[in-house]
Fold these 2 entries.
Entry 1:
Amino acid sequence: MSFLDTEREVLERLLPGLDAALAGHPLATLERPGSPGVAAFRDAGGTALLVPGESSGIGASPLEAVRLQRAVGARCPSLAVATTMHHFSVAGLVEATRHGGGFAWMLLEAVVNDRLLLASGFAEGRTGQSVLRPAITAERRGDHIVLNGSKKPCSLARSMDVLTASVTMTDEDGTERLAVAIVPATADGVSVRPFWGNSVLAGAESEEVVLTDVALDPQMVVTTDVTAGSALDALHVAGFLWFELLMTAGYLGTASALAERVLRRGGGSAADRATLVTELDAAMLAVEAVAREMGEATGWGEALLVRALTARYAAQDAIARATPVALAALGGMSFIGSDEGTYLASAATGLAFHPPSRGRTAEALCAAVDGQALRVG
């Protein structure tokens, strides 16, 4: 068995042809704006990965999903980031259907039949701001709910068919509660503005999506009982679990692509190569352990989310240790001859920038392991 064989077997079994399609393009082509990776993902039926079998989807288990995502990240880091947001949105819709989300089940069937891509407009990317405080507001106006605000960055902004967005709605008593809105990309008032200025991960289409007086049918807004600073409900726990595990697996795949180059070329010492495999596979085993528990558990609670966050932060550390070892093992001529190694090393560090950041979560994690409710800030 070779490095990444297990992950690529899962990818080929669930999304036949995608690995070969991605491998057929140079890394630079896959990672630039307008990447062919998104179309390849759609053509392979990837939109249906987490849609349950009863809704005609693939119904991948959490363990299969994280292994597949590592394989995607090893071929196209931008696609791993972008599709994590799609899968995260789909998982949220699945959870919403279990809590009576009226329109969600119809959208899930369309995701399968029409291969719709879902962008995720959940709070992210604002320094010092709680990830549970969206930048999009919702208010009732007659028979509609009207949205205003923007999400930046928003992956799949150029290719999305639907935006699923967290929004704040104000109760009659003035309490702000979180809700999830389902917004067609073609709805009046939806626009996309350039935002991503870095060449790294540019293929993820992470631009700004702006909502200006977007009027929705109330059925397309799923309300929750969560307020800023409150404990998480089942919908948010499920969302965070999928997000943390899939994003972590994707970035581990990106770091693994760098390690794979070292293994194939025999670079560095045997101790160096063993270090790379040990660091990255051990981190992936932690992700897989949480994914297995997700697949076996009858319910997902805060304790499981604490373990997912632990695995994610441990993976960040493993990536930080492994990437410089890999670059050194590849050597100076590799550095001179191609920017692929430095690109992969840079892209792999992106995991540290996704919410919730370690600094903002440290106190909450300490409180959670001391028996208190987990509050993600």
Note: The mean pLDDT is 90.
Entry 2:
Amino acid sequence: MATAPDPSTLYPDVAAKGSLAAALQAVVAEQGFSFPVIVSESDLLRLAAVPSATPHRETLIVTGWHFERRWSVGGSGKGKLLIYGETEDLNEVVRAAQAWREGVPLPEIRKAAPFVELTGRYETPDDSPAHVVASEWQYMLKDAQDSNWPEYLALIEAAHAEPKLRQLYPYTSHWSLRFSTTTAYPFSPDFVCLVASQGGTYSVRAHWGGPVLAEVATAKEAVSMAVRRLPADLGPAVAGPYERQNH
């Protein structure tokens, strides 16, 4: 296994400041901003954080790479990743951090710092289960579009097009598409599980890891079979994990 170079070799300018937090703080001042940067005692030269001034946004994490000079940023809300990105320029990191901290809308953050990528999720500050479900579906669609796997994309799109599935919280496990009547882990027991194969077929299972109930040629067929397995009175997903809602 290759040994990572000493971080002071990759980041001599950061080392000269004593920490990534201090280096970022200097760039903050240079750009005319004013906000704090949190130092990480566990990894002074490769880890720092910028606290959010927006209640529904979590602290922005800035991480230095181990084998080449580059930084990653990640910003989450309600435990879900909303933005991420990679850059070699600390000035870009600071512009992204300022926009994230001050509550700039997600698409506008990308305009301020073009290296930032959006996960597809939108923010849900009101914690409405319907908004949380819709946000996660948008993430699933973008993730499938970026996957370079046409069969998987077809499955996600077909499931999203079905109103009875679209009201449930979607998530994946080992590329299996699953649905929950609650919006947080632990999720509700499976009603059905759908799997796309690289060969172009689709499997319908009663639950993840369970036996194959059917194997069909199109995503629409698989989704139709899944809908037929749903309880007739199944309602929209509700807030919180399954145990909290049912015990």
Note: The first strand starts at residue 38 and ends at 39.
